[in-house]
Give the backbone structure.
Amino acid sequence: MLGKLLKLDIMFGWKKFAAMAVAVVMTGIVLPYIRKFYVFPTWGFFVGLCLIICALCLYVCCQYFKSNLLGSEGYLMFTLPVKSGSIVLSKLITAVFWINVMFCAAGAAVVFKMQYTPAELFQIISSVDMWKRVIFMLILCNIVVIPIIASVYLAVSSRNITVKNKLLNGIIAEIIAVVGSWIAIRASFWGIELYNDSEYYMSLRMDSASKHEFMTAWMILIIGFAISMLFTAIYGILTNLIIKKRLNLK
Amino acid sequence: MSDVILDIKNVYKSYGDNDVLKNVSFSVRQNRIVGLLGPNGSGKTTLIKIISGLLSDYSGRAEICGMAPCVETKALVSYLPDRMSLPEWMTVKMAIRLFADFFADFDTERAREMLGTLGVSPDKRIGQLSKGMKEKLQLCLCMSRRAKLYVLDEPIAGVDPAARDVIMSTILGNFGEGSSILLSTHIISDVEQIFDDVILLREGRVELMGDAEELRREHGKSIDQLFRGVFKC
């Protein structure tokens, strides 16, 4: 049933997300031709682009979560013979999928902006080191984004299910989202912060670091990802519990 | 084996300080069409939401075929909501496929036939359909299931009298052996002839219930007249 739910959830938003992804790639293609906006595709440019996309994507995902489950469409979703946990999990997986599609679109945009020749592009694509960097970056972004989605889902469900003291519950929900995300991200990054020098850590992951340092960097990243998943699971379970025990469709 | 499909015992529900259902108890047996009647705000929709598994925060006992509302009961109950629950971008065809994917008892052929009879085009997007057509589509999807219990929330509200006849004949024509229907409405005159039993709700309490024919005989009035007498301001 999870597969069917995923198919349905992807159908719900594919047009909007596909349009966003195309817009991101088009930005990368068009930017070099607009001289006055010419900006070198630096690390900052890439991170900035990712953050904007993430925020937009997160907003759209949360809107879908709210309208699909807690609005009129909830009358369909919660009468399907599936567990509420599967519904929440499907929403989470779909949001992560779309955000990763956006990251890939942002990556493609950067490649287009660099205006590589086909030979250079082939060289980059065939480089193992480049793929290591891409995977590293994707994991790093997911460590941040996934618990944010889960904590926002938790906040949205707790806010929309309450009947009394709506304003107070709304404020509490926002606190849950902000504090929940902050705790999850800080906990996931504890290993990286041990270095006290994030640039040094970033250099370990790919360049001329020794095999031991390289493995340490990846191990820290994987542990960070596991912590992030643990927080995501906690927030997901709480969201499911709220929906299961306190569902109150208006 | 008991022929009780739906058993409601002392169900109580409040929204904040507003008590919507106050110790409601009744049961629905197999092969019965039960009218759940009451004015707006009497608690009909809340009760139906509990039965369909859309409200979990209540006290008392609600059982469908001996089980509290859960995944298993959702496979036994075919629910028609009082609002459009299908997304506007979806086509009628996609909605049929969605129901066929999730409900093992969904009869696709039956749905296509019913939609053809009611004049709903399968290629249209739901957003392009009129309000009446949307209601017909939801009714077709609901009645195309071979469910144990059909829970219909205001199926004839907001449609013209001619469409009401079509909707009622669709309900009666597709209601199978061994099933029951719980139909909520406040428009009684057009539908009272189909009820085997009626339950009158008033401010969250069961005001009157029983066999429709016996009530008519006992009070010397139609159910509609009885309803108007009970709820006279």
